[in-house]
Structure formats: structure tokens, C-alpha cells
Design goal:
- The complex is a heterodimer of chains A (about 270) and B (about 575).
- Chain A has about 270 residues and is of the alpha/beta class.
- Chain A contains eleven helices and ten strands.
- In chain A, the strands form two sheets. In chain A, strands 6-7-8-3-9-10 form a six-stranded mixed beta sheet, with helices on both faces. Chain A has a four-stranded antiparallel beta sheet with strand order 2-1-4-5, with helices on one face.
- In chain A, strand 1 (about 15-25) and strand 2 (about 30-40) form a beta hairpin.
- Chain A starts with a helix and ends in a 12-residue tail after the last helix.
- Chain B contains 26 helices and four strands.
- The radius of gyration of chain B is 26 Å and the shape is globular.
- Chain B is about 65% helix and about 0% strand.
- Chain B has two domains: about 5-230, no CATH class; about 240-540, no CATH class.
- In chain B, the strands form two sheets. In chain B, strands 1-2 form a two-stranded antiparallel ribbon.
- Chain B has about 575 residues and is mainly α.
- The chains are: A alpha/beta (about 270), B mainly alpha (about 575).
- The interface of A and B includes residues 105, 107, 124 and 161 of A.
Chain lengths: ~270, ~575
């Protein structure tokens, strides 16, 4: 199913282009010479065992880290060096361990996401000038729309700390979408979710793709990722082991070995 | 410390407890018709039979409330109807009994101290003390009542407006009354009485009701608060002593509110904030027509104010731009250093060590009074038959300034910028990763807070007549910060109250001012232990201090949902 989607997006523009990215912390080379492309309208998965460097690579992509060598191009321009500017350029992310603003309500969280797309300054706010009013009305409307989109219609006034776990994950996605991104990076979006919530998350990511966004997902849940992604890259010890359509990566003996060890003694089925 | 009385006792003893409580209340009411003191000099002369002094009359409010709280439930739940559940009768009675006892003890102690010995305490005080002890000893045996739900009472708009206006009028009357006491004993007794009354009313649910009423009639609330504040000079009958204190309180409160933007909203610790007030004051002094200023340009005051604010905020930018990259304790240390650098610089701009600007440690004195279109701030004017003195003029000017400060504070807080500040306080890294320009927002808080302090400083220069560097020492920064923390970070009302307490008490109580560092230090320690969010808590701040309190989280959520001004952006949000 996912393999059919590849030709459809193959000729769309390359949105994210990471070229030979290497990230060195002292003596530790967390990411080694990784190249990855993501096209508009594509869902790309990034898998790999714990400590493979997935999140470090993610941080290189979002401007949180500066790669030691290599370069990242976003939308045909070099990626700005600061997370804030990367967001402005159209890159939004969620966090592996949820980092919502816990004492703000759901709708306020989403509206913080809109910060970089609004321009109300201190003078506008103090004197309640038209721009303040216009942007507040517009942001509120858009925030409600996004909460509806991720399925949190009734929870706008709930403090995010009071939301159930699965809803917090969805709120994080809504907050990221509020920055009006071209590419959404999801760091383990289904961690800690039950199978039903996972299915809902899958559905949500498809709908985000259908909006015309590109999605890059880090995930451990193999069934989830092979269902979802057009392409999957497997990262092991900081290097890309295999990259390709889900079916190819799924059956690659090196991937199976990386996850469950060498198949020399037993026949591994790869159903990780 | 807290004595827990088992519920079975409370059930078994509920009738005797109520009877004894009523007896205590009656004893205290009777006592005001007896003399409390042997000499005329204690408190406001409580030596008469059958003719209570004003202070005794004020005091009797508490026992009367206690009696009513204990007696009214006797008519039965059926006849009370909804009120039976809306009001926490028993719990409020406990508070009232305790408050009465405390006031009696303070009054008795004042009499004994002022007249030199317990022998001067007359039977009336002993009867009151006995009544207080009986009431405070018996009421804890009453069963606890559930939380008051007076705030759910649906009242028509005119009742709400009337309630707000009545409370404001009472506040004006009581504030004027409190300030009229000049001896320590009377002042403390009256202050304790007020605190007790506020606690009783709070337990009763009056303030919850008022909060709801204030929210739906915000304009009335704000307007009546300012009208009351405006009317205050008329209660003073031309006496300058209290107006001087009031003007100082307002200057102090405006600076504290400016600091509250930095500390309460943006969450940055600034220990050198007084420097910005100083920068504004020096700017205004240098631009004034004082003989000690060698600058020959004397712009109109409104221009001076803007320049003073701008100078302060530029200083804020200069100090903020390099230091806001460090956080927490480091920022505190850098700002602490900045405060000292400012003071030393002002001392050295004396013409010997540096260019002549500030006349060194002597400062700039003889700053002339303001004059707006022929209205001389230095002269007394008679308005409506009441003398309005010099300090009252400055008091009114400061009222305008503090109005501006509150406007800036609340409107920034309830905007995109305020949301950004909350996000920074919650998780700075996540805020940055969501595209919030955290550095610019922190800088804005710094510069904006500095601007407001500069404006307040410009008025302060004319009010104080002279500006010297030693007025702007670290201790003053610490007091401003204490006002913010004590009152409640992130709130307007709390900081107003905190600033009033910190400025008023040392002025009214001589002995207090000798030990004020010790006492304020103790007060802060106690507050940090028992109520770190301050006297008036900002909901989100409260949650930050009590992260694991799920019940509180639910309450705050309800509160925020009611409050949601982004959902009503068409409403102005000038709020107290």
C-alpha cells in the first residue's frame, strides 16, 4: 500500500535535504555522514534501535544543534542556525517526552505556536490597536480549527497538564501545526499509546499529509511505521543502514540483525 | 501545630459549643459598654461607662458577626433555604471567634504597654478577653461546614454593581480611618481588626462573589476603584502627613508594578531595578530648573517624562542585551551589580571624577514643583471646600501614572506577548522550538519595566524635591522585590497591597521602622514557607508553586476558562 505512494511524490520538490550530516560530541560521533531527503507530501520514517542517533539527527534538522560537518537545506535554502528561525522557515516539531506548556490551556498552547506568524507588538497590545484585535480573533479561530482537526474540540479550555496522555500528544501536534509548517517532524508520536490511540494517530498523520505537508517520523512501533510511511530510513550507530520503501527495509537482514541480533542461530521473522 | 478535633466530638458537642460561642459573643458585645483602660492615654480613650470609644465600636463588628453566624443557623435549614449551603456558617464563625480574640489580646496588650502595666487594664477588657477565650475555645468544636459557594449565587447586575461600589466605599472609609490613628497601639489594633474582618468575609464567600461580580462588571470595578482613590485626599481635610505617605506608596507601587512585569510576567529575577527609578529621577532632575543642574534646556514635564522613561529603557536594553542570555541566578547577580554601578556612576558624575551632571553625592536639590497650565503643584488649593495640599496634588498625578502602569501591565499580559512570557516561564527551550523569540520577549520585559520605572522616577524627583544617589541603594531594590513577592507575583491587586504594607507600616509604626529589615525578613521567610505564591495568588503562578496539587489544577482550569480573554478579544482588559 505504501509502496504505491512513492512514484506519486517522486517528482515533487525536495523540501528537506540533509547532506552528509555528522554530529560529533567530543569523542562520540552520534551521527555519522547521514544524508536524507524529504519531499512535499511524503511521509518518511526514521527507525533504529535506542541510541542510534535518531533524536540527535532530528535536533540537527531543527536548528537545535549545528552539525559538525555536512549541511541541511530546507526549501532550497540553507537551514537557519536557530530553532526559532527554522520554525519561521516552515519546520515544526514535537518532542519525544512531551514538552507542552503544562499550566496553559490547550487553546493557549496552540496560540503560542502561532506566535511566529503574528506580528502584534507591545504598542498594539497596550493600546488595543486594530492589529491586536484582528490577530487575536484570527488566532482564536485558527486555534479552535486546529484543535478540531486533531480531535480535541471540547478540550480548548482544559489545562494541558489535565489532559489524558494521548490527548497531550495530539495537542503537541496541534501546537506544531499552528506554526504553519511545510514539514512536520514527529519524535515518537505514539510512545506510550494504546493500540486504539495509535490507530488514531496514524489517521491523523495521514490527514496532515493530505494537507500537503511533508512528515518525518521517528518511531519504534514497526507496524505503525511500515503502515504509515512512504519511505523508511534505518539508522544504526549513527549511520543510515538502509533507506527505501517500507517493504524493502522491513525485510532487510541487516535491519533485522540490528534490532534482534544475528539470525545465525535462529530464523528471525523480523516482526519486531 | 494544627490541633485536629475528631469528628465525633464535633457531633457530640455541637450544641454546647454553639451556646458557649454565643455566650462569648455576648460577653464581648457587653464589654464595650464597660471601661477597658484606667488611663485616658491608651488607644482612643476607653475609660467610659456606657459610652464606647470609636475603636470599641469598630471592634464590636467582629463579635456581632460571630453572634449572627452562630444564631442564624438556629432558625433551621428549611427556612434558610439555599443560603444554608451557600455560606460556610460554622467555619466562618470559627474565624470570627479567633479574629475577635486576637484583636482583644492586641488591644489589651496595647493598653498595658501604653499605660505601663496590666494593672491599668480595666474590667471591660477582661470581660472581652474572657468572651474571646470562651468563643475561640468553643467554636472549634462545631462541625466543619463545606466550602462556601456564594459565588454561584446568581445576582442581577445592579446588585453586583451596588456590591462593588459598597465595598469600594467601605475600603475608602476604612483606609481613611486607619490612617487617622497616629499612635502605634490604635493603628495595630485597627489593622488587626481589618485583617480579621477581611478573613471573616473571605471565609464567608464575599470575595468569591465579588470576583464574579467584578468580572462581569469590570468597567464598574475599575472605575469605582479609581474614583475611590481619587476621592481619598478629600477625606484628609488638608492634612499633609497622610497624603505624603499615600503619594510615596503610589510611587513605590508603580515601581513595584513595573518590576512585576519583569519578575511576575517574564519570570526574570532583577535585583537592581531601583536603578531604573533612579535613572528616571536623575533625568527629570537634570532637566528641571534646579540651580544644581547645568543643563539649560527645560522641556515641559510631559516631554521630561517621556525622556526619563526612554533613558531608563535604553539603560534596560544596554544591561539586558548582554545579560539576558544568562539565566536565573546569574541574571540576578549581574543586575545586582548593575544597581551598584548606577549608584557609583551617579556619585562620580560630580565634575571632579567625571563630567558634571548629577552634583555627585549631594545630588540635585531644590527641584521646583510642577506647574501644569498654571496649576501649581506646590501650593494648596481649595476644591469643594476641602484643602488639597501639595502632596495631594502629587498623589493625583501618581494616580495617573499608576493607571498607565496598570494599563501596560494588564494589556501586555493579556496578549500574544503575555502568552509568550508564560511559555518562556513554563519551558524556555520548547518556546524557542515553537518559534517564540524568547530573547526579544525578555528584552521587551526588561525595557518596558524600566520605562515605567523611569516615568515614576520623574514624578518622584519633583515630589521629593531632591534626588541623591543614596536613595537608590540595593536595599530599595530588595524592598520592591519583596513587595512583588509578598503581594503575589503576576497580579496587580497583590502588588498594590504588598507595596502598601511595605511602605505604610514603617511610616506609621516608629518601632517597626527600627526593626523593619528583621521583621520583613521574617515575614518573607514565613510567606515562602506557607504561601509562596503571595497574598493574592495568580492562578498559574500558584500552580507553578504547587505542581502536584491536582485539585488546585482543576480550580485554576475553571478560573482560566471563565477568564479567557482571548476568547473575548473585543473586550478591553484593563483589570485589577
Amino acid at each position: 500500500m505504501s509502496t504505491e505512494a512513492v512514484p506519486a511524490v517522486a517528482d515533487t520538490a525536495v523540501l528537506l535535504d540533509a547532506r552528509n550530516v555528522t554530529m560529533q560530541f567530543g569523542g562520540l560521533r552520534a551521527v555519522n555522514d547521514v544524508s536524507l531527503q524529504v519531499r512535499t507530501g511524503e511521509i518518511v520514517g526514521l527507525i533504529g534501535p535506542n541510541g542510534a542517533g535518531k533524536t540527535t539527527f532530528f535536533n540537527c534538522l531543527t536548528g537545535l544543534y549545528q552539525p559538525t560537518t555536512g549541511s541541511v537545506f530546507f526549501d532550497a535554502a540553507p537551514l537557519p542556525a536557530k530553532p526559532r528561525l527554522a520554525v519561521r522557515a516552515g519546520m515544526a516539531r514535537t518532542f519525544q517526552n512531551i514538552r507542552l506548556f503544562h499550566n496553559m490551556t490547550a487553546i493557549e498552547n496552540v496560540m503560542v505556536g502561532m506566535y511566529c506568524r503574528t506580528k502584534t507588538n507591545a504598542i498594539d497590545a497596550v493600546f488595543r490597536l486594530p492589529r491586536h484585535r484582528r490577530e487575536e480573533v484570527e488566532s482564536t479561530r485558527r486555534a479552535k480549527e486546529l484543535l478540531d482537526f486533531v480531535g480535541l474540540s471540547g478540550s480548548g479550555d482544559t489545562l494541558s497538564r489535565n489532559l489524558p496522555y494521548g490527548d497531550q500528544r495530539r495537542l503537541e501536534i496541534a501546537r506544531a501545526l499552528a506554526t504553519d509548517p511545510k514539514l512536520l517532524l514527529l519524535d515518537e508520536p505514539t510512545a506510550g499509546m494504546n493500540p486504539q490511540e495509535t490507530r488514531q494517530a496514524e489517521d491523523l498523520i495521514f490527514r496532515i499529509r493530505d494537507l500537503g505537508l511533508a512528515v518525518l517520523v521517528i518511531e519504534h512501533d514497526m507496524r505503525f511505521i511500515f503502515n504509515l510511511c512512504d519511505r523508511v530510513a534505518c539508522l544504526v550507530r549513527g549511520e543510515v543502514l538502509v533507506e527505501g520503501p517500507g517493504a524493502v527495509v522491513q525485510n532487510d537482514p541487516r535491519v533485522i540483525e540490528a534490532y534482534i541480533g544475528s539470525p545465525a542461530t535462529q530464523d528471525g521473522s523480523g516482526d519486531a | 501545630m494544627r490541633v485536629v478535633i475528631p469528628d465525633e466530638f464535633k457531633i457530640r458537642f455541637r450544641y454546647p459549643a454553639r451556646a458557649l460561642g454565643l455566650l462569648g459573643a455576648v460577653l464581648m458585645i457587653v464589654s464595650i459598654f464597660l471601661p477597658w483602660a484606667y488611663g485616658h492615654d491608651a488607644l482612643d480613650d476607653m475609660t467610659f461607662w456606657g459610652a464606647p470609644s470609636p475603636l470599641q465600636l469598630f471592634f464590636v463588628v467582629l463579635p456581632v458577626l460571630l453572634g449572627l453566624l452562630l444564631a442564624i443557623p438556629l432558625v433551621g435549614k428549611q427556612r434558610l433555604g439555599a443560603l444554608a449551603r451557600m455560606v460556610a456558617w460554622n467555619t466562618t464563625a470559627k474565624t470570627a471567634a479567633l479574629a475577635s480574640l486576637v484583636v482583644v489580646v492586641i488591644a489589651t496588650a496595647s493598653i498595658a504597654i501604653e499605660l505601663g502595666g496590666l494593672v491599668n487594664v480595666d474590667p471591660g477588657a477582661w470581660v472581652a478577653l474572657l468572651g474571646g477565650l470562651v468563643a475561640a475555645g468553643s467554636t472549634p468544636f462545631l462541625p466543619d461546614s463545606p466550602e462556601p459557594t456564594l459565588d454561584r449565587l446568581k445576582s442581577p447586575a445592579w446588585v453586583q454593581i451596588l456590591g462593588i461600589v459598597a465595598v469600594m466605599a467601605a475600603a475608602l472609609f476604612l483606609a481613611a480611618q486607619a490612617l487617622s490613628y497616629n499612635d502605634a497601639g490604635s493603628f495595630i489594633t485597627f489593622a488587626a481588626l481589618l485583617v480579621g474582618l477581611v478573613l471573616v468575609l473571605r471565609q464567608f464567600g464575599v470575595f468569591d462573589w465579588l470576583r464574579v461580580a467584578g468580572r462581569s462588571n469590570n468597567r464598574v470595578l475599575v472605575l469605582s476603584a479609581f474614583v475611590v482613590a481619587f476621592l481619598f485626599p478629600f477625606t484628609q481635610d488638608g492634612k499633609d502627613a497622610n497624603m505624603s505617605i499615600a503619594a510615596q506608596v503610589l510611587i513605590f507601587a508603580s515601581a513595584a508594578l513595573g518590576l512585576n512585569i519583569v519578575v511576575g510576567l517574564a519570570g526574570l529575577l532583577d535585583l537592581g531595578y531601583i536603578a531604573f527609578l533612579g535613572a528616571g529621577a536623575f533625568t527629570a532632575a537634570v532637566l528641571s530648573e534646579s540651580a544644581y543642574s547645568h543643563v539649560n534646556w527645560h522641556p515641559p514635564f510631559i516631554v521630561t517624562v517621556i525622556i526619563a522613561g526612554t533613558v531608563s529603557s535604553v539603560l534596560g536594553l544596554i544591561i539586558g542585551a548582554p545579560t539576558l542570555r544568562v539565566s536565573g541566578d546569574y541574571l540576578a547577580i549581574v543586575t545586582l551589580g548593575f544597581g551598584e554601578i548606577f549608584r557609583l556612576t551617579m556619585i562620580n558624575l560630580d565634575g571632579n571624577d567625571g563630567p558634571y551632571v548629577t552634583n555627585g553625592s549631594n545630588g540635585i536639590s531644590n527641584i521646583p514643583d510642577l506647574n501644569f497650565f498654571g496649576f501649581d503643584f506646590g501650593k494648596a488649593h481649595t476644591i469643594l471646600g476641602v484643602d488639597i495640599g501639595r502632596f495631594a496634588n502629587y498623589y493625583w498625578l501618581m494616580l495617573l501614572v499608576i493607571g498607565l502602569v496598570i494599563l501596560v501591565f494588564t494589556n501586555l499580559n493579556h496578549s500574544r506577548i503575555g502568552r509568550g512570557w508564560v511559555a518562556i516561564r513554563e519551558d524556555e527551550l520548547a518556546a524557542e522550538a515553537m518559534g517564540v523569540n524568547t530573547f526579544a520577549l525578555k528584552l521587551l520585559a526588561f525595557a518596558g519595566g524600566a520605562f515605567l520605572a523611569g516615568v515614576a522616577g520623574a514624578v518622584k524627583a519633583h515630589h521629593d524635591v531632591s534626588v541623591t544617589p543614596d536613595q537608590y541603594v540595593f536595599l530599595e531594590s530588595a524592598f520592591l522585590l519583596a513587595a512583588v513577592v509578598l503581594g503575589g507575583m503576576g497580579t496587580v491587586m497583590g502588588v498594590l497591597i504588598g507595596a502598601t504594607i511595605l511602605k505604610l507600616l514603617p511610616e506609621k509604626l516608629r518601632f517597626f521602622s527600627d526593626y523593619r529589615l528583621l521583621l520583613f525578613g521574617l515575614l518573607l521567610v514565613v510567606m515562602m514557607r506557607f504561601r509562596p505564591e503571595g497574598m493574592i495568588a495568580e492562578e498559574r503562578r500558584q500552580l507553578e508553586f504547587h505542581a502536584e496539587d491536582e485539585e488546585l489544577a482543576e480550580e485554576v482550569q475553571e478560573e482560566l476558562a471563565l477568564y479567557h480573554d482571548h476568547l473575548h478579544p473585543e473586550r478591553g482588559s484593563f483589570e485589577l
